[in-house]
Design goal:
Layout: E1 2-3, H1 9-18, H2 27-35, E2 38-42, E3 47-49, E4 57-63, E5 66-71, E6 77-83, E7 87-89, H3 91-96, E8 103-106, E9 110-116, H4 117-126, H5 128-154, H6 157-168, E10 170-172, E11 175-179, H7 186-193, H8 197-209, E12 213-215, E13 219-222, H9 225-232
Antiparallel strand pairs: 1-2, 2-9, 3-8, 4-7, 4-9, 5-6, 5-8, 10-11, 11-13, 12-13
Helix pairs in contact: 1-2, 4-5, 6-9, 7-8
Amino acid sequence: MSTYPAATPERARQVVASLRIFAALPAEASQALAKLMIPHEYAAGQVICLEGDPGDYVYVLEKGWIKVVRAAVDGREQIAMLLHDGELFGVEAAFGGAAYPVTVIALEEVTAWSIERGALLSLVNRCPALALACLKHLSEQVLYYLQLVEDLGLRSVQARIAHTLMNHAELRNGQLVVSRRAWATQDEMASRLGTVRDVINRSLKALEVDGILQIERNQIIILDAQKLVERGRAAK
């Protein structure tokens, strides 16, 4: 990992304060946590942590998007989740004293802060509020993975696409829009939704023909949110 030199105690405190999961921490705990954090920069495509390596660090994602993947022996990958600013990763390995169960890869230029496992656990033992925040994070992950199991096992590909688009849509100028970043290719979507690019392409075109989506180069506009929600509920 490459250390990012422009680190100050104040910047670290600002990063902690920006994290939803740590919003309720007492000031003393926030400051103690900030003192443990070391910043790093990663280029697009760089591996931040590797499945099977010792889970020695928890990471706070300050800026950029990353993908969390599991890889098969033949090289195929299943994207478990995408994360961006203000998220944590590596908590399950650190608290379980286990290896990283996933590989985390930067999708673009990323700034993340590492916290050494032993130092974090020592602080958790002294700060019940921090322990509860970490427990909440782990609980949210369990619920997320239960939803992922439901999507992959019980929903059609078109339903998975519809559900994903609704979850990532933002209201912009009165329209629901999903931004299409440079790395957000149909191959990436296929890896995330457990299918192949051709099926993704056909499903998106079908939604566009039905007047539910308008697909542009840099964004997808949701024309009929109600119908998209209905498509997202469809079973296999």
